[in-house]
Amino acid sequence: xxxxxxxxxxxxxxxxxxxxxxxxxxxxxxxxxxxxxxxxxxxxxxxxxxxxxxxxxxxxxxxxxxxxxxxxxxxxxxxxxxxxxxxxxxxxxxxxxxxxxxxxxxxxxxxxxxxxxxxxxxxxxxxxxxxxxxxxxxxxxxxxxxxxxxxxxx
Length: 154
Known about the structure:
By secondary structure, the protein is of the alpha+beta class. It has helices at residues 22-46, 88-95, 117-131, and strands at residues 11-12, 18-19, 51-56, 63-68, 71-72, 78-81, 98-103, 106-115, 143-148. The chain has one domain: Pnp Oxidase, Chain A (Roll). It has a seven-stranded antiparallel β-sheet, with helices on both faces. A two-stranded antiparallel ribbon has the order 1-2. A hairpin with a 6-residue loop joins strand 3 (51-56) and strand 4 (63-68). The longest helix has 25 residues, at 22-46. The radius of gyration is 20 Å and the shape is globular.
């Protein structure tokens, strides 16, 4: 009888003091963790270590953002890859390939082209060479080429 079930309403303790439900504390911690992760991603993007991919959420339809490792292609495209097939940012790009990408102080409109076969493998290899062995799990998810979109006014 040590506490409430997760998600239960606040309960009174033996001393008559109302205790908050455990879920409330967990939600604050999760929200704080997401905010810290987002701030870290934004800082790494300002330094040019990762890119921020701005997409539209597949489920929510709301703006979404993810900090993702990248490699510059010679033609100005960026190569990115997800560590698993169900990465939200990768699902967002698969559903709607139009995105905005921020690296350093530059933000560009881009279009994502999914890489397959040898192009996929080459992107994974380049990402591993840039980021080291922790990037080895990248082969499990999709890889994309984020191509610059022509300036509509140009």
